[in-house]
Design brief:
By secondary structure, the protein is α/β, with parallel strands linked by helices. α6 (141-147) links the parallel β5 (130-132) and β6 (158-160). The chain is globular, with a radius of gyration of 23 Å. Keywords: FAD, Flavoprotein, Oxidoreductase.
């Protein structure tokens, strides 16, 4: 074989791609190529937890996407960060370890007709790569003995730790949430995440733990694993046999200014994310024929669902001024405060520089009639006008709330036939009556929590959205004014049953009608998980790796299994 021919080609060295490269290259007889458009993850701000502030919006590590003007956001456009480096979004995200709710996966099993997506099966795949601090020998031996084999995994690559700081004002918010009827919890990952507590994070000894460190670095010495960085996929290589069967045989890439044809003898796996994967499929002529004809891309396979079904968590940020509370706003207002933060991190790997973007979490219901928790809170001891802008000059905390199960659906569609041009990203937030109602109710839940006695000593004063807004209509419109993405796009290459005309992949993530091609990333989720989406994406990749490795080799003329 030539140096550009491999058994497997994985496109995208993000969360899923790094795990896939690790698992698929276990057999030294199988050659694996991992392709990443971004650079190596050797930028220091990737690894310092607070460095997400310098990675998002930075062309070194971010694709710098922007949404289309959104009617649900009253015409606003949003910055839409996506990781562009080894580790992908795990190199710039909030580091929160969250599986979601068991019902999420049981619903996937129902939608696909495949019981391998049920919670009990998925739990095994979560644990397969988990290295949970509670199972450390010296951490909590009683917990390990009681729960280790049931809830957490130990000895895997994906490190999960406690956060290395606490804030009095966040402790007070947690107590207020309990006074408002939300139970305390020390574990959001049992399958029912209802409760309030501090998030667990993907860190190791105060450093960010991204997918590249976890899965790629330990196996980078393998001679059968090749990693190409700064390599842009232009399109997939597709062929047809005499019967008309379409097969993916590789990818055309731009590498070092030269066009290179990389070939795969077994499979090509798209792991470019919920934005990148549908873009590559459409550029290759796989997608809605009407769109491709409009753009001028020759139609290879009319697959209607490619780029549709975009779902995301829209967080609504309520800001409260406080009195007598230590917050990051006050701590960073002086050069001495900033110096103390830096010194604490250098000496202890703790303090604000070890912070995830959100420290305290809560899951609850927008109203008592909800059958399960449908809201997630990210609570922070700081406030600002918008992400990337300076902190406010006054002490404050932010309670951001999102609808876990939005009914709004958007899309990702190429604008041109050029791979270098960003696609149109239209989340269509708050485009349903149900989502607007939940948005209004969630703001009322926030107000009810903040009004509890536990926070009274800090005299919280609602700065955003403002107490003058009370009706459903006012609150829904205000949500459109102040809400922002929490960076959880999924669903644009969703899996489904054979009779589902909008399903892009089957339950084993094989692209319908195209042999030798799978999609393995958050795009395959038919519905968004009830929580942060990074670790569920790893679970999906763990399943997919097993299926790929046990799939029989197919002849070039064989139809997809």
């Amino acid at each position: 074989m030539s140096h550009t021919t491999f058994d497997y080609i994985v496109i995208g060295a993000g969360t899923a791609g790094c795990l896939l490269a690790n698992r698929l290259s276990t057999d030294p007889k199988r050659r694996v190529l991992l392709i990443e458009a971004g650079r190596k993850d050797d930028y220091h701000w990737i690894h310092i937890p607070v460095g997400y502030l310098y990675c998002i919006g930075n062309p070194r590590t971010d694709w710098l996407y922007q949404t289309e003007a959104d009617a649900g956001l009253n015409g606003r456009k949003l910055r839409y960060p996506r990781g562009k480096t080894l580790g992908g979004c795990s190199s710039i995200n909030g580091m929160i370890y969250m599986r979601g709710q068991s019902r999420d996966y049981d619903q996937w099993a129902s939608l696909t007709g495949d019981d391998d997506w049920r919670w009990d099966s998925c739990l095994k795949d979560f644990k397969a790569h988990e290295d949970h601090y509670r199972l450390d020998a010296a951490a909590d031996p009683a917990f390990a003995a009681l729960h280790g084999n049931r809830r957490q995994g130990g000895g895997g690559e994906w490190r999960v730790e406690k956060q290395r700081l606490r804030w009095d004002v966040l402790d007070a918010f947690a107590q207020a949430a309990q006074e408002a009827g939300i139970p305390a919890t020390t574990d959001f990952n049992t399958g029912n995440n209802e409760g309030v507590g501090y998030f667990e994070v993907n860190q190791k000894a105060g450093w960010r733990w991204n997918a590249s460190k976890a899965f790629l670095r330990p196996v980078q010495h393998r001679p059968n694993l090749t990693v190409w960085t700064e390599t842009h996929v232009q399109k997939l290589t597709l062929t047809r046999d005499a019967s008309g069967q379409l097969r993916c045989t590789g990818a055309e890439v731009l590498r070092g200014g030269q066009t290179v044809q990389a070939q795969a003898s077994r499979e090509v796996v798209l792991s470019a994310g919920a934005i990148g994967s549908p873009q590559i499929l459409q550029l290759s002529g796989i997608g809605p024929a009407a769109l491709l004809n409009q753009i001028g891309v020759p139609v290879q396979h009319n697959l209607l669902g490619v780029g549709e079904n975009l779902q995301d968590h829209l967080q609504i940020r309520s800001v409260y001024k406080v009195t007598g509370a230590k917050t990051l706003n006050a701590l960073t207002s002086s050069i001495w405060g900033k110096a103390s933060i830096g010194l604490e991190y250098v000496l202890k790997r703790s303090g604000p520089m070890s912070m995830a973007p959100s420290q305290l979490g809560a899951f609850t219901r927008s109203d008592p009639s909800q059958p399960w928790p449908n809201l997630e809170y990210h609570v922070q001891p700081l406030s600002l006008e918008a992400f990337g802008e300076p902190l406010h000059a006054f002490p404050a905390f932010t309670a951001s709330v999102c609808n876990l199960n939005p009914t709004s659906r958007g899309h990702v569609r190429i604008k041109t036939a050029r791979a270098a041009d960003a696609p149109a990203i239209a989340p269509c937030y708050l485009s349903t009556d149900e989502d607007r109602h939940v948005a209004a109710e969630s703001l009322r839940v926030t107000r009810r929590i903040v009004a509890q006695p536990a926070l009274a000593r800090y005299k919280p004063e609602e700065f955003k959205p403002g107490v003058q807004f009370q009706t459903d209509e006012e609150l829904a419109r205000l949500a459109g004014d102040i809400a922002s993405t929490i960076f959880h796009p999924v669903g644009t290459t969703r899996m489904g049953r054979a009779d589902d005309g909008m399903a892009v992949v089957d339950s084993r993530l094989r692209v319908r009608g195209v042999a030798g091609l799978r999609v393995v990333d958050a795009g395959v989720m038919p519905t968004i998980t009830s929580g942060n989406t990074n670790s569920p994406t790893l679970m999906i990749a763990e399943k997919a790796a097993r299926w790929i490795l046990t799939a029989p080799p197919a002849s070039p003329s064989a139809p997809p299994p």
